[in-house]
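Bit of a strange request maybe. I'm writing a small parser for structure token strings and I need a real example to test against, not something I typed by hand. Could someone generate the tokens for this chain?
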Amino acid sequence: MKIMKQILITGLLICAVNLIQAQPYRIDVTIKGLADSTIFLAVHGGTAKYSVDTAVLDKNGKASFSKPRTLEGGMYFIALNGVALFDFLVSADGNDSFGIITGKDDYSKIEFVNSPENTAMLAYLDYRNQHQKKYEQMIEKLKASAENSDEQKELRNRLLDFNRPLIAFSDSLADKYEGKFLATVVNAFKPPVEPDFNLPEDEPDRERKIAMNYYLFNKEHFLDNINFEDERILRTPFFEPDILDYYLKNVLVFKEADSIIPCIDKIMARMPIGSRTYRYILSHIFNFYSASAVMGHEKIVIYLGENYYLQPETTWESEKFRNDLINFIHRNKPTLIGKTSPDLLLPTPDGKRYESIHGLTANYTVLYFYDTDCGHCKEETPRIKAIYDKYKNRLGLEVYAVYVQTDEQKWLDFIDKNKLDWINVWDPYRTGNIYNTFNTATTPQIYLLDKNKEIIARRLDAENLDKLLQIYANRKQ
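Reply from user aminoacidic:
Good idea to test on real output. This should exercise your parser:
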């Protein structure tokens, strides 16, 4: 799904550190056993990282980062020779002067001076690590237990309440450090409390129903504990890959656009329009689905364009971006999956007959748009011809093949060379507006229609067209 590149950098730009603020910061760093070395203070920004300040360790391994301005809140790290040594939190509340002590032999052993928040973060990470180890041990026991045994039932019951101690610990830290960035972090990783979806043993299709209930719960509540109004969460290494992308890739496992769009609306409603988090997350979701190879996700891109980017309150994108987006919508919206295909009435090679898409009576119709000079078209055409021969009688398949250029002799030679005995048409006078209606800026373009000319699939290649038709053939049997 090729669309404008400009927006790809938006998320990075809004994560850049703004150092024009009022209050000073001072971070004293001691790295025992390391002297006369330049270290860097840097901040995470999604998958990117930004250098903020530099300092030189003296002969005793001591250095200070200090400026008469406030750091933006987020997760920072000290780097040496291009390698991140350890992370820590900055809340940006005017109390960001503290010390860090560690040693070059083991950077995981850190002591924070005058930073109860970061000391509490270490305790939290240790607790989570121990919790995760216990969870993995229980899962291994569950896998090894006999199906429907008392041991297995006991382990499953224990798993229902397994996260409660972690939730309680997270809640206690969030309450104690309310307003600090630590509270946002621990809440972000706090799992929602799942209800017991257990059903009677004799319930028909019991396991599938339980699994579906858990899926629907997670889809609805996975992001409940994320504070989307706290822009500091953007400046972390975990929010983008471990929370937002995990949700898009692994929680929204049903990929239909109509299922995903309400989830996006729910996320965006939790942020002020135009805020940094709003702009970053909208950009990230837009880019995610623009790059998606899943058929039908164009509908999500179009929805985001019409309902977010092209609204009057969205003023931060360039005119070029808006125009490119409008063109994308114009070229793709008429042929989204589920819509009735636009009709074409085009001449055949002899020029004496016109064929209409809507006039075809086939059970399935392949719309195939190609250019005789297109290398990919030259490869795909024989494959589609083989598919046509395979399914034309089994499924009642027809191919409506449209040559998108105007060189008649090249077209006739191509038909003859490939023995194309399906419906061949062209548009020499450009009356069909094929370029915009069927998005033929690139070829080949392959659509599959049902008997009523409703679009079943788009952006197909020959391999996936064959797989899809085989599914329909199996159902027929």
